């Protein structure tokens, strides 16, 4: 190509320099697009967080970190942090336990291949629904006169209908359960692929050495799955911490802030009370929390490489 001819194009730049620049020239459109769609909005939000109430105030003034202090001192913010941590940690733990259990089941040779295929379709079904559909399904199921309460009262497990999503005692556990149900297929598929990549010779050698099923699982299966588990757990932590549609369409952060998350708290600051600068400060705090986990994820990936 003429671009790489040392005696025709760009005579003042060496041939090696042009070769080194070529990949960046090809990547320039993508980098520019990412800068417009991601970097510019982030910089704008950070700028808003350092000003007086923007948008509502025609001439906002610089207030420094005052918005961050106000957000951190807000009682609802502290409640939303606790709810978000509970929601996220419980979701990640049970995503892993359920996903690993189903992956082991689908990888087992004790089950007929046709049955395994049917189970694979059945288990992955929650993953094909959007957050909106998931929220609608479970609002109907957990309705005081819905299917769940009907089954529980019929079996005499409860004596009366339970307000699953409208009671402060059960709402957070209910939305956490819904998120666990909707998210475990991601773990199941990832771990099933990892299980199918474990060399069979290792299991055969362990049988010769007299290892039982638990020892094979603990000393062969788990070590091979640890890199996958760490990667998907960190990604899941980042995604779950930012969940908004599921919470908003089931409880809206209520009742009495029982399911208030960082995402719903920030949304309400911006579009319910029109405190856009405080909402920007809250969004930056969420960004920093996510970036801390993302940084750990990137370091882990580099260590694996």
UniProtKB/TrEMBL annotation:
It is a multi-pass membrane protein. The keyword Cell inner membrane does not apply. Residues 81-297 form the ABC transmembrane type-1 domain. The chain crosses the membrane at residues 24-50, 85-106, 118-141, 178-197, 217-239, 276-298. One of its GO terms (biological process) is transmembrane transport. InterPro entries: MetI-like (IPR000515), MetI-like_sf (IPR035906). Gene3D superfamilies: MetI-like. One of its GO terms (cellular component) is plasma membrane. Coiled coil: none annotated. Keywords: Cell membrane, Membrane, Transmembrane, Transmembrane helix, Transport. It is found in: Cell membrane. Belongs to the binding-protein-dependent transport system permease family. This is Binding-protein-dependent transport systems inner membrane component.
